[in-house]
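Methods — Computational structure assignment.
A single polypeptide chain was analysed. Its primary sequence is given first, followed by the predicted tertiary structure written as structure tokens.
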Amino acid sequence: MNRRHFLAGALSCPSLALLPAQAFAEDTVKLRDLYNKDLSFSEYALAREGQRVSISGFMAPPLKAETNFFVLTNRPLAVCPFCETEAQWPDDILAIYAKRVIAVISFNTRINVRGKLELGTFTDPDTKFVSRVRLVDAVYERA
């Protein structure tokens, strides 16, 4: 069977038409879905660790120019939300490690980010930023 025959067969399969478009999309995460009330990781987050997920939010101003790292926030912040220890990690931000050097987007513009979900304490060797949860190999676009 060649690719042309496979595609023709797949497109003619009526059961595929019954699936919602979201069945083919990456899982969409909300920041509040990642944590329990006691700030432990939720079952939702634990089940998706290592998988590519999507999330929307706002790019906080980056720590430095020419970097692939930024913080995604639940609401627009004009300054970067630093954390000193994992115990102070807020549940409404997410560390993002992009595939490439980032192009800064205004702090009040909503963006969509897709990347692999990683859980657990990590201290960035360059910035010393401490995160409990992050997206790696991420890409982003304006919402």
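Note: The mean pLDDT is 78.
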